[in-house]
Amino acid sequence: DAGVIQSPRHEVTEMGQEVTLRCKPISGHNSLFWYRQTMMRGLELLIYFNNNVPIDDSGMPEDRFSAKMPNASFSTLKIQPSEPRDSAVYFCASSLAREAFFGQGTRLTVV
Amino acid sequence: KQEVTQIPAALSVPEGENLVLNCSFTDSAIYNLQWFRQDPGKGLTSLLLIQSSQREQTSGRLNASLDKSSGRSTLYIAASQPGDSATYLCAARSGAGSYQLTFGKGTKLSVIP
């Protein structure tokens, strides 16, 4: 398996634009996590899906953030409208109840 | 709410030294604890996973221990090498149907040749 695949790897966008981050989890995994990493706050859990259903979205900072998992092999994290304070590295991880595996992340810069 | 703390935040050691990284968690009702390595600008690589029923796990020069009752885990690195330089993160996974991973802020390790 190729592991957790995230796209794009880098995204630079202007404030106010919509940004969509994509994640393909490892085949067969039933849990998917979206994390945000910044120097100040470290790794923060944004949302967690189990069997494609959002279980805990308490970490989603604002209504500008939304996440979907339409099927077991794909998830998106959308920010609309984006703001400079959203600049961070966004990680997707998947798991089958035990070990979690992370993607390489998407580095988002909002100017 | 689970909180995970890693001390120290940064550590610099000479090559060849054995070292211990510490991780503490506030809620002992964990499902497992996982140690990760992160290189600059990269993703997280899983190093070791300890289930709640286990006391330790070993992989090569790495040994991780878990003491649930005291809310602590340690990562022991033997005979450190410059290639071990990275940030090491521990994450506690909640049980009871949650399975949420809570991370510490990491320990940045520098191994000096």
Summarize this structure briefly.
The complex is a heterodimer of chains A (111) and B (113). Chain A has 111 residues and is mostly beta strands. Chain A is 0% helix and 57% strand.
What does this structure look like?
The complex is a heterodimer of chains A (111) and B (113). In chain A, a hairpin with a 2-residue loop joins β5 and β6. The radius of gyration of chain A is 13 Å and the shape is globular. Chain A has 111 residues and is mainly beta. Chain A has no helices and 11 strands. Chain B has 113 residues and is mostly beta strands. Chain B contains no helices and 11 strands. The interface between A and B is medium-sized, with 23 and 23 residues.
Identify the notable features of this structure and list them briefly:
heterodimer, A: 111 residues, mainly beta, 7-stranded mixed beta sheet, 57% strand, B: 113 residues, 6-stranded mixed beta sheet, 5-stranded antiparallel beta sheet, 0% helix
